[in-house]
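Deliverable D5.2: sample structural annotation.
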Amino acid sequence: MTDRPKRKSIPDRVKLEVVLAQGGTCTHCSKPLGKLSGVRFDHRPPIALRRVNEAGTDYDPPQLDPGHLEALHEACHDERTTGRRGESKLSARDGDQTRIAKVKRLVERYQPAAPVEEERRLPPADEFERRRSELLRPESRPRAEKRSKWPSRPFSKKESRR
């Protein structure tokens, strides 16, 4: 999953095509979108959850496919991305970020283990000697004074009585 294509910016032509296909309304709340400056474009399904195509140049479906983009208000986009915040901690499960994190955890858990030879590879000889000398070098710590639990003189000095 590390060799994923870079995210492309959405051209104005594609943005206009998406807004016209939706009839100028937000797909999340069904209200009119208004000015384009307050509109965000959301990928459905999220890019992080898409597979990379066989050529390795784009995703399947492609990033800039108008059929897999939606125009949303900024607040609707934030709610869809992070979940409904403020209602309860459980409501964050609805967001894309939660789903993406879950997929990453599952991929890490079920990925095949690395071969043993790669894990046990020794460092170069000079690196080995440097580490060895660091470990064998005596530590030079300043000596702390020993603190006794009992004061050296439990009673205060009294002037001699005559």
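Annotation notes: Residues 12-110 form one domain. The radius of gyration is 32 Å.
The annotation will be released with the project's public dataset once the embargo ends.
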